[in-house]
């Protein structure tokens, strides 16, 4: 049994199919199928039920995949112990969080070129499951939505000011852009402005900024997000509301995870 075989099986399980797993692993679908069949032969049992439209784990697969993930993580830690900081960090991000994530990732690449980051979107209620089932190594959420004690180590990031971003028009004459329920920025704005009037709702920061730039709306954004759109006028509040992000991770973090946390902080 080889680590490559374990990685292929885990990719098929997480992606839900051979084609998606092949794309993630940057290889051909036939290669993925061959590797899985060979491992199933060695184990003497199928790991997946294959249908026309989807692939699901068999009971043997349900037992095998968590152990395979643990073996891959142990191998990653062993490799990191004798080499420069390297490896893959699986980062779960709740919708609407960390608008300057590209800056963070650019800093990480410059400091540690051997560290790769795989991102997936998580709803706040999925953070605990993502960590306990080893689907992600680090999850970004808001400081008030961290999972219960025992689900991971919580690192609070520096709090950030929320600002009003608009065109040059008087902001009181236009509606406020809203974001979908479940978005962290939506929750922060709801708390800060419970009596605001009807809003336009979008599910993309760039779309919100576009509406504001066209003079059709105003939007409340973290200062780091507003800075991405220099065409907007930024107004500070008299008593600026703030929000705080948190990075949640397991206690046995690898050097690659520690490097990402250092960039976030």
TrEMBL record:
One Gene Ontology MF term: transcription cis-regulatory region binding
Similarity comment text for this entry: Belongs to the LysR transcriptional regulatory family.
Pfam families the UniProt entry points to: HTH_1, LysR_substrate
Keyword Transcription regulation assigned: yes
UniProt cross-references to SUPFAM superfamilies, sorted A to Z: Periplasmic binding protein-like II, Winged helix' DNA-binding domain
Domain of life of the native organism: Bacteria
Domain HTH lysR-type: 1-58
Record key words, sorted: DNA-binding, Transcription, Transcription regulation
Protein name: LysR family transcriptional regulator
Natural source organism: Amycolatopsis vancoresmycina DSM 44592
């Amino acid at each position: 049994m080889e680590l490559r075989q374990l990685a292929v099986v885990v990719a098929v399980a997480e992606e839900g199919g051979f084609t998606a797993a092949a794309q993630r692993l940057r290889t051909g679908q036939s290669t993925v199928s061959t590797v899985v069949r060979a491992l199933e032969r060695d184990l003497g049992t199928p790991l997946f039920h294959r249908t026309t439209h989807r692939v699901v784990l068999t009971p043997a697969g349900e037992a095998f995949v968590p152990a395979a993930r643990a073996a891959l993580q142990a191998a990653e830690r062993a490799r990191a112990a004798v080499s420069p900081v390297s490896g893959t960090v699986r980062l779960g991000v709740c919708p609407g969080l960390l608008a300057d994530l590209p800056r963070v990732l650019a800093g990480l690449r410059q400091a540690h070129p051997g560290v790769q980051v795989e991102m997936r979107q998580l709803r706040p209620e999925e953070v605990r499951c993502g960590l306990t089932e080893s689907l992600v190594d680090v999850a970004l959420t808001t400081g008030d939505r961290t999972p219960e004690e025992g689900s991971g180590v919580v690192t609070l990031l520096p709090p950030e000011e929320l600002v009003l971003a608009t065109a040059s028009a008087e902001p009181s004459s236009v509606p406020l852009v809203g974001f979908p329920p479940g978005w962290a920025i939506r929750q922060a704005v709801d708390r800060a402005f419970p009596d605001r009037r009807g809003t336009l709702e979008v599910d993309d920061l760039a779309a919100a900024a576009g509406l504001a730039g066209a003079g059709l709306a105003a939007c409340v954004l973290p200062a780091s997000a507003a800075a991405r759109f220099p065409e907007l006028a930024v107004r500070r509040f008299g008593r600026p509301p703030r929000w705080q992000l948190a990075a949640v991770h397991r206690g046995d973090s690898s050097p690659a995870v520690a490097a990402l946390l250092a960039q976030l902080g």
